[in-house]
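Throughout our pipeline, every protein is held as a single compact record rather than as scattered files. Such a record has a labelled line for the sequence and another for the backbone structure tokens. This encoding replaces a full spatial description with a residue-level series of whole-number codes. For reference, a complete record is included directly beneath this paragraph.
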Amino acid sequence: MSQKIGEKKEVAFSFYLQTQDAKTRARAGILDTPHGRVETPAFIPVATRAVVKTLSPQELEELGVPVILCNTYHLSQRPGLEVIKEAGGLHRFIGWKRAIMTDSGGYQVFSLARLCQITDEGVTFRSHYDGAKVFFTPERVIEIQNLLGADIIMPLDECVAFPAEEDDAAQATRRTLLWAERSLSCHKDSRQALFGIIQGSTYRGLREEAAREIVKMDFPGYAIGGLSVGEGNVLMNEVLCYTLPLVPEESPRHLLGVGTPEDILDAVEKGIDTFDCVMPTRHGRGGEAFTWAGPVNLKNSQYRQDMKSIDENCSCYACKNFSRAYLRHLVQINEMLGLRLISLHNIFFFQRFMCKIRRSIIQGRFTSFKREFKTCQGCRIN
């Protein structure tokens, strides 16, 4: 879209591909949203119930987080849409000035399977909060996300468990395509980018069919769903290898629910731009810290008198001010500060990790960076 010099205009959504690694499909790009710029590849911390657990929006900003992901299903249940509407939208409600992505509630079709019934019309849930019946149609999911005011939104989709029978995966893929079409038809807010979701489990034919059909609908971005549900790294990489070449290069690609640093590197290599996962804070609350030499479980007794920082190569607040011994003590007594500090460190690690990946792509040395990182992950910190 052209714009005259000096003309003031709200940026709705755009993606610019800056460079691609010469040896792989790894890409560096710029994603512009109404609430700021996201440099890709990027990791998106998960704020399921409108909070990245234990951390404040100010802390997240200071850690360099450009975008967070919130959950449509959970927020529609608690605190409820009338509360968020009264606040003036999700950004104002949670005090977050940067970009927000919302998922559709499709993952809850998978994770809360025992509480839901699925038809072509939509999904009927029994709320795990109070047992009330909730009916989500593709149109209702878009309506909710329009009200929330997120910058990037997702259509209702159906994610199957692994392993899945091919007939079940085909049914879910067909339904996801049907819902994508209905979602696109009712989405009218140009300030929000609606991404198409590609399902198909680990069946190549289904994935390729889904990718071709979704791309025909001409979404501004695309998400790969239905992975990280038990299929493992090898199958995940196979799916990405044959799916991503069917997605337009000029469009941003998001990988839902992934993941580990190793999985992120593998997916970046194949052309993924953004990721979301609960891992940094979930592991942090369990006492596990990510480091450049591999994970450190601070619950272990070997750290009881260890006066070194979590990671001597880290400059986060936790590493600059506290020892492993102190953090282990906090974890042992179940003190919230310990869980907060380790979560803060993990988010910082993931943001620095993505920055280094991006720099390596721009400098044409992604392959060597990946090799060096995976080698270092085998070096345990003493």
Observations:
- Residues 279-377 form one domain.
- The longest helix spans residues 336-362.
- The chain has two domains: 14-103+138-277, 279-377.
- Residues 1-9 have pLDDT under 50 and may be disordered.
